[in-house]
Amino acid sequence: MWRAMGGWRGILESVVPGLVFIIAYTVTIDPSTGQGDLWLSLALSVGIAAVFVVARLIARQPVNAAVGGLIAAGVAAALAAFTGQASNNFIPGFITNILYGSAFLISALIGWSLIGLAVGFLMGEGTAWRRDKRKRRAFFWLAIAWASLFAARLIVQVPLYFADNVTALGTLKLVMGIPLFAPMVAVTWLAVRALYPPTPK
Question: Which residues contact 114 (CB under 8 A, 6 or more apart)?
């Protein structure tokens, strides 16, 4: 589970750019307009993501996760900057949740759970799990649970987007990120361990 989250460094690379954006935007809100400094907030967010990439390069460590975070921050920043709306910084996250949620839901409904496919590959049994009713049922509900997580994010966050409540939207995005992702990874891991108990040596 810890490896799946990338350890402390992976968590920081995932959370800090968004946190910096929210803090900077909130601190710079002008009471007369109710708007924060969009450009400063975006620059700091993308800048910290770039720092993470450089730090990994200097340490000669894999940069895939950090580069992914930089690209995500850059795309979100470009969209917000182009439209001039800070709330548009969150649109890529909405699209990601829609795609992942739909993929998990559809895979469960057609009997080819993405969880089952991934576990089958990792455990070296391919699609043999589909002939086991217990595994099929478990992988079905795990995929539904993951789809529900992505759907919950959209249900809670999209109304705030349309209300242009950037501070609340950013805060809830952080709260519904790693704090919900980690327990889901743990539950998935425990379920898989129950289905594939270690063989005695």
Answer: 103, 104, 107, 143, 146
